[in-house]
Amino acid sequence: MSALRFYLSSSVMKKQVMGVTGLLLCGFLVSHLAGNCLIYVGSDVFNTYAYTLISNPLIYVAEAILAIIFLTHLGLAIKLTIENKTARPQNYYIKQKTGRGATFASSTMPYTGMITLVFMILHLLHFKFGPLYMTTVDGVEMRDIYKTVIEYFQSPLNVAWYIFAMISLGIHVSHGFWSAFQSIGFNHPKYNCLIKCSSKAFGVLVTLGYSALPIYCYLQGVK
Question: Of the candidates 198, 154, 208, which has an alpha carbon nearest to the alpha carbon of residue 177?
Answer without folding.
Answer: 198
